[in-house]
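Example is below:
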Amino acid sequence: MDRFARFSALLLLALAGAIPAPALAADPVPAEQKGLAVSVTHPVRREMSDTLLVTGSLLPREEIQVGPEIEGYRLVELLAEAGDRVEKGQVLARLSRDMLDVQLAQNTANAAKARAAIAQQKANLDQTLAQEAEALTAVDRTRQLRKTGVSSQEQLDERERAVKVATAQVAAAREMLAAAEADSTLVAAQRAEIELRLARTDIKAPEAGVVLARHARIGAIVLSTRSDPLFTIARDGAVDLDAQVPEASMARLKVGQKVQVTPAGFTQPVDGTVRLIAAQVDKSTRLGEVKVALAADPELRPGTYGRGLVELGRRDALTVPLSAVMFDGDGAYVMVVEDAIVRERRVGAGLKGQGVVEVTGGLKPQDVVVVRAGGFLRDGDRVRPVMTTDVSASRAPATGAR
């Protein structure tokens, strides 16, 4: 009972104010310290790039198919492989030339024979010309003698017939010489053909570039009618991004626009330029083709997927962090702080890139915008704004994509 009595006495004293009660004596929290602390920032003006995203595959700008210019010969040597860089006129492969060497030797003999025939016919022509000259002299002398009565008419007729025979022999000799010279010309033409075929046993690169594929096999009989070429070369090693662009964006593209292309597997983009824009759009896919010329890079592989950002233009824009903008059925909005009270503000959203969004209306540079509003703030909430310099709110130029 003594213990209960002492507890009752202490309780009565506390109620009377003799013993201070800490819970009852605590001071109220100041009104300006109430509310959730939130990070805020001001909209920042910066230069933004208006870009268009395009995707496609890397393809050689000009593909050269190298095949045999003669057929029926065996492939005996290969001097290039896929991936090799070759120069114009460089030998890529060689064909067997044994048969052509035999034909060339035969032609050499025929050429010597033709030269001998020409020499013989020239000598024969000279002989007939001399006989003709002798016959003409004899007939002239006989005519003079006939006038004096020393020679008979019969002898004159005989001399004139000899002149006609000599003239005919000269004409025949001339024809035989022409025939011998024609034979020599034919042999020379045959030699040129053989030498051309011999030259074509060396399969050469028609232009400088990179060998994309090799279908040639040693021992195979090459045929010009085969379906696959012996080699496929990318001329000068030039590679394009063959991009597909929606029809609505085709009008915004111009030849010469800069493009940052990132092929699959690359960590850094490759510089490119719009080289060619298709004159028509595919009516089934509603996509247009755009060729983007890429800067030379030995790591570029035709057939690789690539994505590019085409720079359509630049402009000065008012921006806020991407995390500050929210969207609903009515469009975009942000949360601004006015006198420590959160207010919902409707804005127009434009270009996006590098963690920021262009605000096309609804904000001023002096407004205080909640950096990360999320879904935990409502219009009218009291907060404690904490000004921050967000990384995305720096004044570095930003690239925006539509």
Notes: The radius of gyration is 50 Å. Residues 98-199 form one domain.
